[in-house]
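Appendix B, record 7
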Amino acid sequence: MEVPERGRRAEAPWKKLSKETATKRARATRRNRLHVPYGDGEGENLDIYFPEQVSEASPFCVFFHGGYWQSGSKDTSAFMVNPLTAQGVAVVIVAYDIAPKGTLDQMVDQVTRSIVYIQKQYPRNEGIYLCGHSAGAHLAAMMLLADWTKHAVAPNLRGFFLISGIYDLEPIVFTSQNGPLLMTLEDARRNGPQQLLEAALTQPVDPACHVLVIVGQHDSPEFSRQSREFYQGPQDHQPFIQQIPSEHLLQVRQGPAASRSCLALFSTQTLCRGGWNASFEELHDVDHFEIIWKLTQDDYVLTQMILRTIFQEP
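Structure tokens (predicted):
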């Protein structure tokens, strides 16, 4: 998902590194298997980066890129590879068919099958941790309530890192961003983590599985709202949603002047109310892009959160 830049300022060295060379450096310095097919489709492949001591018993962090389901690529998304593999975590970057080639139903199915592939290939893994950014956080969140029975495998899911995601898709139906997706209201509800959470009677994921909902201090109001409400539910007010075409970003507008065709429908069920092992974090002084780009840094707060969760450190 695209967001406007926050004013003019000099670009930090880590930002330039993240955008231009993170994946190239990861491929040059880490043991890897690239473009591994997890299905028969042309776009159904993934990259696996291994720690120095390769072991099938490693924990695996599986990343789904963002881009409003219509841009982005695994080939430019290896931000976290070097810091995580240096600590013994294998990292998987997944490709999926973005719109207009892929529909939301197809993307969710592809993400599901990529996880099944990892579990079957590395059955002795020490846990599979799903990480998604923006649209990728939506796809990761869909796995919270996935039905694995038809795949004859139960992935060893131990944690979710949902970064600056969107969990209620209905407002998007009424915006120009839906052009490539061709999403109907029925599609949005069927593929809406918030709606699925509301309808869920049980928690298929291990209750010990930790779900971290993460947003940046300078994320847009809509990303912040959806993240908070997926975690703990709506506040006292319910804002309307308005599309700002020039910025390609959903923003919040309150009051009677807001377009009622874009009213967001909030559910009462949330991660907290559903009893999930969940937490919410707002990261200081980062925007929608910086929050993920900075994962190239060993000492970045989110890098450390991910590692502490994986290794069950306080």
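Remarks on this record: The CA atoms of residues 141 and 193 lie 6 Å apart. The chain has a mean pLDDT of 84.
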